[in-house]
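Ligand: adenosine-5'-triphosphate. Inputs:
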Amino acid sequence: MLTTVIFRRLLLSIPTILGVATLAFVLGHLAPGDPAIAAMGLDMDGYTTIEPGELERVRRELGLDKPMLVQYGLWLGKALQGDFGRSFVTTELVAEMIFYALPSTVFLLLTTMVVASIVGIALGIISAVNQGKTGDYIARMIAIIGVSTPTFWFALVLILLFSFAIPIFPMNGSVIDHGPIAMVLPTLAIALHPAALIARMMRSSMLEVLSQDMVRTATAKGLSRQRVLLVHALRNAINPVLTVIGFQLANLMGGAVAVEYIFSIPGLGSLLIESIYEKDLLVMQGAVLVVGVAFAVTNLLVDILYLVVDPRIRL
Amino acid sequence: MDAMAAVLELKNLQTQFATRDGIVRAVDGVSYAVGQGETLGVVGESGCGKSVSSLSILRLIPDPPGKIVGGSVLFAGEDLTRVSEERIRAVRGNEISMIFQEPMTSLNPMMTIGKQISEPLTRHLGLSKKQAADRAQEMLALVQIPDTRKWLSGYPHEMSGGMRQRVMIAIALACDPKVLIADEPTTALDVTIQAQILQLIRELQEKMGTAVIMVTHDLGVIAEVADRVVVMYAGRKIEEASVKKLFARPRHPYTRGLMTAIPRLDKITNGDGLSKRLTEIPGVVPPLYDLPAGCAFADRCGYATDQCRIEKPVFEKKSPNHWAACWQELPG
Ligand SMILES: Nc1ncnc2c1ncn2[C@@H]1O[C@H](COP(=O)(O)OP(=O)(O)OP(=O)(O)O)[C@@H](O)[C@H]1O
Ligand SMILES: [Mg+2]
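Predicted complex:
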């Protein structure tokens, strides 16, 4: 039954999340620099000015003197309960910092994905229905440009064009300061790439379905062209596209980190970049863990959605 | 087609495909008519234009590359090749319906059986969802599917090929059409299921008075269900007669060739594991983009003379209710 299948997938995602946690921990420690020095408010150059013994005391205080495995065990045990510790730099609770940063990021990503999906699906359908004609060429050209444009570069171009040259949109992406209009440029910047990928997948999937017998049956019933395309063909062509949308939603986190930073959006991406600059170990680890878990959960949801949507694979 | 008034009439229909090799004359001036309650068989080897001619009736030819370039399809005082898109859509699935060869892929795998049968009912008859669902259930019973309540919400993948073809028939007949076009409806099915489906189509035809165009490559099917037969070769009609007359004395050497081919194995499996249809008549159909000046069958015909190779035979009356396009008078 559907529920048992979903339950099995849930169980399978436990090792994934543990793996993500381990990776977050290791990455945090692999990052260059010494978190203890950062915690003392000093940079590398200030190393020599520390009194002897002071560094060891801070290390002990922060628990950095313990063997790696013990540190890992302690961190993981607490992290799984939602306790990510306190920032070395600001002494705020990491969980709270993430909690405040999360809404901006989730909102940005969801808006982006909705825009990218609508644009991508529409472009893909237009392309497939007009195969070999002008509409197809234009849609495919847009898709090629979209796939090959780096997100951060496109973000900068958008700022130059629409914040400086023609100042329509604010350069700062904070909705709290500027209202919804602030979302436009960051959303466009992140949406371009997934929209292009979705358009490509939609086109090829739609073309395949359009050549199937069942589309001929639908036409032979006397249904309108829209109904044949949007109810019969689209319903059959959408599944691989949903998978792409899911994976893109997960992958977007990468693009979002840079774009959040460029537009000064106080989200998870900005938090992560700042924590790397400041060697704020626990914030870094917490942010990476949350991003990783979000990634795994998104993929899980896509799998489940796939099951619900396709009657043939409900086992 | 003398006595009965025709419900549907094809006149000199020509459908072509633009391909890299040139213009494929898939249907090259075909005429036939079918009367109320009558079953017209259309028979011929693979690739002779049976499907293209029947798809042309409802303008279901993929365009590009296909196009109806000449002739007419007369139905209820209109030429369907010329009516508006909107009008042809109102005819499709309502006044003229079609079922196809491949029941495994002809239904929408994502939509319930009930919904698929309901669609033409809401579209053409303006029934409410509830009314359409009730009628869909009746249709399932009519095509002898057990447990109709359950199957209304079932999906095609849960059904066998025979059951799916029954559903296709239910969809096609839902709006009580005047003409049913069945393009090899049993070719993909087991022999026992084939007989059941043919039987079902015949029963429903009698009950509803539908005219049926039965397209097949199998003269056995023709013998079983058809009243009258049109034999096609290389995009043309080469013989037409009542079933009795055709089987009693075929006038075209090609038809004779088809007859010696039954009973026969329908398919053999060759070395690559690919299924290949067994051709009993030696030789191959000339390419439809490069037809000879004379009779297209001449190269494969034991009776062919110089005249056959130079001049296209005229389609003429050979005896009452029997026409053929052949210069030769075959021995009886
Ligand atoms: N989409 C197409 N593009 C080009 N040529 C086509 C197309 N569809 C059909 N044809 C050509 O039209 C001719 C007639 O095909 P058709 O499908 O009507 O044959 P058929 O008599 O139904 O044969 P079968 O028994 O295999 O179904 C074939 O020679 C085929 O090559
Ligand atoms: Mg065919």
